[in-house]
Amino acid sequence: MSKQSADGVPVQDYPTATTVSEFEHNLGQVRANIAAAAARAGRDPSDVRLLPVSKTVPEERIRLAVAAGCHELGENKVQEAKRKAEELADLGVAWSVIGHLQTNKARDVAAFAAEFQALDSARVAAALDRRLQAAGRSLDVYVQVNTSAEPQKYGLAPEEVEAFLRELPNYAALRVRGLMTLAIFSRDVPAVRACFTRLRDLRDRIRDTDPELVGDGGLSMGMSGDYEVAVEEGATCVRVGQAVFGARATADGDYWPGAAGIADGA
């Protein structure tokens, strides 16, 4: 279990992993925390997928992480993800793009990514579908939802999601796997939990209406500072960076809008 501060927020110093054994330790700790959170919620921990997030991590350390058991990795920025996918092609890593995508980067994502977790517009869906069709590929996608209602964050408003999902069958190369969100970056655990609860409730309502709209009904939510809460609220994928790789020097605001100085971005 993570240590808890007086206000209930998990406290971690996120030591940097520089050996295979240190990565194995960090991964083991995260998986143990996932299992404990799942047990508290009466869930099977095997239903929760751990997606390690390697943003800002140099290639030599990623090789150590892969040797420790990381065979899929998440990246926020397409340019960084593309470079790593090319330089680490020998490792057979499945790359997940989890950050906002501009349409002019759709070609790159279509070329290397196994998954895209931040779909939030028909323009991006159309651009990805066109590039994927040309490449003869398909792509797993999650629809990003702004459950915190923060104007600086990407993602659809919850009330817009069902209509957007109904458009996606027009893009045959996209396979909808579920919904994704970033909780509010706050030490207020109930406020963080409410973001996750909103995503789960939204998924449940849409699934009750038309289960095919949300595909597998996955919920990608939770990062290093809040993934245990996310698991308690139904996460099927947690995106964990610093708790696996160690603290990063780059400000999270460079990767997640509105995140700088408040909480770790993954």
Automatic annotation (TrEMBL):
Keywords: Pyridoxal phosphate. Transmembrane segments: none annotated. The modification N6-(pyridoxal phosphate)lysine is found at K55. Its cofactor is pyridoxal 5'-phosphate. One of its GO terms (molecular function) is pyridoxal phosphate binding. Gene3D superfamilies: Alanine racemase. Residues 26-248 form the Alanine racemase N-terminal domain. Belongs to the pyridoxal phosphate-binding protein YggS/PROSC family. PANTHER family: PROLINE SYNTHETASE CO-TRANSCRIBED BACTERIAL HOMOLOG PROTEIN, PYRIDOXAL PHOSPHATE HOMEOSTASIS PROTEIN. Pyridoxal 5'-phosphate (PLP)-binding protein, which is involved in PLP homeostasis. This is Pyridoxal phosphate homeostasis protein.
